[in-house]
Amino acid sequence: MAVTRHPREASPDVAAPRPWLAVYTLAARELVRFARQRNRVFGAIGQPVLFWLLFGAGLGPSFRWPGGATGHLSYREYFFPGTLVLILLFTAIFATISIIEDRREGFLQSVLVAPLPRWSLVLGKLIGGTLIALIQGLLFLALGLTVGLKFSFGSLAAIAGFAFVLAFALTALGFVIAWRLDSTQGFHAIMSVFLMPMWLLSGAFFPADPRASGAAAALAWIIRLNPLTYGVAGLRHLLYWGRPDAELPVDLPSLATCLIVTVGFAAVTFVLCWKVVEGRTTGDLQ
Hints:
Structural class: mainly alpha
Number of domains: 1
Number of helices: 11
Strand content: under 5%
Number of strands: 0
Radius of gyration: 22 Å
């Protein structure tokens, strides 16, 4: 009796899909591309470091804690976690711009027609971009020694783990934006009007005053609703953990709250990436 094979059933001569191999391959491709484009290191680290040095020197003498509180952190120390988040954000931007380039070169189309689940494409691109962001962020931590930061193995592992989750969320956010764009100019425009204000309104550049009124109170509420605020606050907790002289803002969210919100932020953006990839199949193959 002849056996009828379902049209979608794979032939025995065709290898079964290996999604985790695809994840590894795409992530490794991002790392290799990063190693060949070393100018990206300056773009992602150079500008935030200049911000940290220049703003720290210029705004340091006039920096005051909100509400008349007396803090023992200088402005350069206060701005350090925000600069670290800015490096993660810039690296995520540069990593996800490659999606637009892959579409132009035809690489993205060849990946989309492969017999692999779409989540493997998303996860591979995100892990590659996240690892690049984490490497550059850890390099910047060396400058923390100049402002009195001290790292043990445990604190460095905690900072790296939290930074990985935050970098994953930012890379996924950049992925969602880049997937729907056809030009790098449009991506940079969105970065200027959306991603940079998102960073500015995260408590990275200036603390919110919990006792403010009027427009300042509305600004404080925007900062509280911004998911990136909890990423900055979480790194602030971890960077100054165990320093009794580091008086943190009184309204700083707890470390547990920061971890929950950041993990939720990463999960939501990953799901959005997955959905947007599945929804744009026909358009991207044209």
